[in-house]
Amino acid sequence: MKLHIRSGLTWFILLIALIAAVWVVISITRHNDGQPAMQRLSIGSHAPDFEGVNTNGEKIRLADYRGKVVVINFWASWCGPCVNEMPLINGVFQDHSDDVVTLFVNAGESKGTIMEFLTAQQFEFPVLIDAAGKITGAYFVTGLPVTYILNKDGAISQAIIGEIENKQQLDHAIKNAGED
Questions:
Q1: Is residue 153 one of the residues assigned to a domain?
Q2: The pLDDT of residue 29 is above 50
Q3: Residue 87: per-residue pLDDT
Q4: How many domains are contained in the chain?
Q5: Is 60 exceeded by the pLDDT of residue 23?
Q6: Does the predicted TM-score (pTM) go above 0.85?
Q7: Chain-wide mean pLDDT for the chain?
Q8: 10 Å Cβ neighbour count for 177?
């Protein structure tokens, strides 16, 4: 009798895991209108505008940065690759502060969690709080980290999916966006 119950429970758990896996795959590859998500934000397309509040309490609106190259980095404190690339992006933020706007968008965490992380890592840059997922949703972010580089007209010049490999990769993307 115990063997029969365990066997049934095992099959039930496997069925739930299979349903969850199928749901994740569909969610990642499709948006509401049935188009593949990555086709929605292609290189050269206009980046979706957004508003948000950063950790300093300032209201940030993407459209306010037209005329400048913009780096938008989506991250979370629990994401290992995000944490690995943050010193590199912070360096670019400091090196290019006069001519490049860097927007760090935290995906889904509270202001308290973000502030604890920034303090522990000794980062002083402001972070956009996207606890409700409105900004990450507008950019179809389904995994972290993701970095978009926008040209001065607000069009997507490059998308880096995953961890940025080195400073040269990001510097090159910024340079290309400035020339678009």
A1: yes
A2: no
A3: 92
A4: 1
A5: no
A6: no
A7: 86
A8: 23
Cβ neighbors of 50 (< 8 A, separation 6 or more) are: 61, 62, 134, 135, 138
- Please state whether 15 falls in left (phi above 0), alpha (psi between -120 and 50) or beta: alpha
Q: If you average pLDDT over residues 46-68, what whole number do you get?
A: 96
At residue 23, what is the residue type?
W
Any idea what DSSP says for residue 57?
A: S
Overall residue count recorded for the chain in this entry: 180
The owner of tokens 């050269």 is 44
Alpha helix segments (H runs only) across the chain: 2-29, 37-40, 80-95, 111-121, 134-138, 167-179
Structure tokens at 103: 């927007």
Q: Which amino acid is at 124?
A: E
Lowest pLDDT segment from 24-38, 110-124, 163-177: 24-38
Contact 75, 106 (CB under 8 A): yes
Asked whether residue 121 is assigned to any structural domain, the reply reads yes
pLDDT of residue 24: 53
Q: What residue numbers bound the domain in which 84 lies?
A: 44-179
Residue type at position 59: K
Q: In b/e form, how buried is each residue of 133-171, taking b as 16+ CB within 10 angstroms?
A: eebbebbbbeebbbbbbbbbebebbbbbeebbeeeeebe
